Model the fold of this input.
Amino acid sequence: MGSGVQHALEQLKTTGVRITPQRHAILTYLMEALNHPTADDIYRALEPQFPSMSVATVYNNLKMFMEAGMVRELTYGDNSSRFDANVSDHYHVICQECGKIEDFSYSSLHEVEHSAEQATGFKIHGLRLELYGVCKCCSEKRH
Done:
């Protein structure tokens, strides 16, 4: 998975952003974490490596990654923003009990965007699809 990180960092450099070790670590962590971590999660994971880092530092860097179009902020019911470094087209399934978010892809949704353009004349830039349910862990707990 390392190549994605390198590519992302190259992209950032072209926008004139300095790549500090902290930024490198935050981005790497985000790209490898499949659970869409919160800023707190990232802070806790990286604090041992960067004792001087604060949650605010993490948050400011995430904001900068978002402005660069490399990270998406996901705001869901539990009011904590989660961050997703996968900006390719994909959708989210969200557990209504524990708040876990999983990615899934479904290619024929491109047809929906296309139909929408045809029908409205809009230029469609994106689609956000969320499915709600109960994850495996939570449903096993119930039984």
